[in-house]
Design a protein that fits this description.
By secondary structure, the protein is of the alpha/beta class. It has helices at about 15-25, 35-45, 60-70, 75, 90-100, 110-125; strands at about 5-10, 30-35, 50-55, 80-85, 105. Helix 2 runs parallel beside helix 3 (about 60-70).
Length: about 130
């Protein structure tokens, strides 16, 4: 799994620790961001292939970050796989997440088995 980078952007420390632990245990290179502005800065420096992003964060919410990563010419080339990971499970929120450029939408609490499975599947498809 060398070179497989993941960024986690969430302002809830427990979620960040849990998700980081799960993904690092699987061998992924993981960095974290505590708010939307931090997420964009970390993305620019780290260039992860996958971004897990919470919708409700300070400074820039997850919709704004997703929109930036999809539409700003500086980041469009990197084309990360964006997984919106949030407690907001309403259909309107999901629809907006997909409209802004999210690839997947997972509601909290998340299943570690589901997260690991999705990452294995995604990176396997990238290798094939």
């Amino acid at each position: 799994m060398a070179g497989e980078k993941i960024l986690i952007a969430d302002d809830e420390p427990y979620n960040v620790r849990a998700l980081s632990y799960i993904l690092k245990r699987e061998g992924y290179d993981v960095q974290t961001a505590v708010d939307g502005e931090d997420a964009v800065m970390k993305f620019e420096a780290f260039r992860p292939q996958v971004v897990f992003i919470d919708l409700m964060m300070p400074k820039k919410n997850g919709f704004e970050v997703t929109h930036t990563l999809r539409n700003d010419p500086r980041y469009r080339e990197s084309s990360p796989y964006i997984i919106i990971l949030t407690g907001k499970g309403e259909d309107t929120e999901k629809f907006k997440g997909y409209l802004e450029g999210g690839d997947e939408y997972i509601t909290k609490p998340f299943s570690p088995v589901e997260i690991v499975g999705k990452m294995r599947e995604y990176f396997q498809q990238k290798r094939d």
